[in-house]
Amino acid sequence: MDAKDILGLQKTSFPSAQEKKPRAPKEPQRKPDGVSREVYALTGGVGMAPLMPTIEASHLKRRPAVEKEKVAWQWLPFTSSARTDNLQLYHWVRVVNNVPPTGDYDFAKYNTKVDVLKYTDEEYEKYLTEPTWSREETDQLFELCQRFDLRFIVIADRFPTARSVEDLKSRYYSVTRALLIARARSFDEVAGNPLVKETFNAAHETERKRALSALFSQTKQQERKDAEVLAEAKRIMESRAANKNVEEAGAPTSLPNAAVPADGVSPLSNNLPSSAATHPAAAANTSIPDTLRMLKVYLRTHALDQMVQAVTASAGIRMIKRVDQTLQDLGVNLKPKVPTKAVCAEHLELRNEILTLLNIQKQLQNKEAEVLANRESSFTEAPTTPKRSNRDIDRPFVPDMAGFGGERAVKRDHKRKTTGRFDAPPSPTQGKRPRKMKASD
């Protein structure tokens, strides 16, 4: 029973608004031939874009309609402001719509002139006199400088007397500098002028040209030799810089709680070279490669391990283990906890001193063994005399029982003793005369 039964309404079915009308099935599109399935899916089923433009290419290159220009080339006269004689020449000119171009000659802007100063007789006598230069030569020099725009190679070729290019430059720049300073109200007014700020050095210019000529005339062999010399000089400078950095670190030269002499030299460095004795840190770092010594930042990485291996490269594995054991006995970490440059230098120096101490102890043991062997081999004895070791053995005391019927006991004891490791000297026969003792016995 529902609400319609209670109200007495007829049960009819009304279409609900939520019901969706069925859509017409889409016709499946067939994949065109020659196109892969992946490409067809990426294009969304619409196929590939057209390979050819849909508009004509002529429409893209078409320019807007403008009035056509009438261009012609005409033989016309022209003048140049760079010339002072008003010479009229002719050349071909591009004329557009029968309108000839106006204005100055195009290449007249490249006609630049140098402002060469002129001096009076009073200024020359007061500021510009030079014992090696006469007034006539100075006038000729400034005239040629004005004419050839300071092209001193050409000026030296045109100059009437034999003067070098450096002499001409020196005279011109010295005169110009003196004129600028003399005509200025104060020196600060012309202090920024290049001719006043930088004086011409003829000796330096001559040396520069000589060096340049020598450089250009070098052979390949000389160039290789110079390159080797420069590389060696660079290596020496890097080595000196590294040694200077080590010296600036200022590492102490003794172990903790160790006695240090008054002169500051370790007692273990008596047999070492003088350079190593005075500065053990430098001696410890001589075997470290330059690439490791030039490090500016020290970290607990392979760099410290490589430094330790370089310092202990001449030692064996057992010696390295003994060094590590000594560090542990002293309460020192095998790797610094704060590996700064100074701490790493101290650590390497401590390892080097421990290694030196162990080597000295080993040499001392070898020397003591040699002394003991020489002492034992120095006792040269006679052939019939028993060895020293045999004579030093404590033998039991056996009383002489021959007069008391103890001959059998003596023989028994002698028989027992002959079976031992060391043989006793035979007793002299009673029927023979005893041997006379020698002085060596």
Automatic annotation (TrEMBL):
Gene3D superfamilies recorded: Homeodomain-like
Main location: nucleus
Domain of life from the UniProt record: Eukaryota
One BP term from GO: chromatin remodeling
Organism: Triticum aestivum
Name of the protein: Myb-like domain-containing protein
Renumbered residue ranges of the record's region Disordered: 1-36, 243-262, 372-441
GO molecular function, one term: transcription corepressor activity
GO CC terms, sorted: NuA4 histone acetyltransferase complex; Swr1 complex
CDD domains: SANT_DMAP1_like (cd11658)
Bias (Basic and acidic residues): 18-36
Annotated keywords: Chromatin regulator, Nucleus, Transcription, Transcription regulation
Domain Myb-like: 129-178
Amino acid composition bias (Basic residues), ranges on this chain: 432-441
Pfam families: SANT_DAMP1_like
Subcellular location: Nucleus
Sequence ranges of Polar residues compositional bias: 375-387
SMART domains linked: SANT (SM00717)
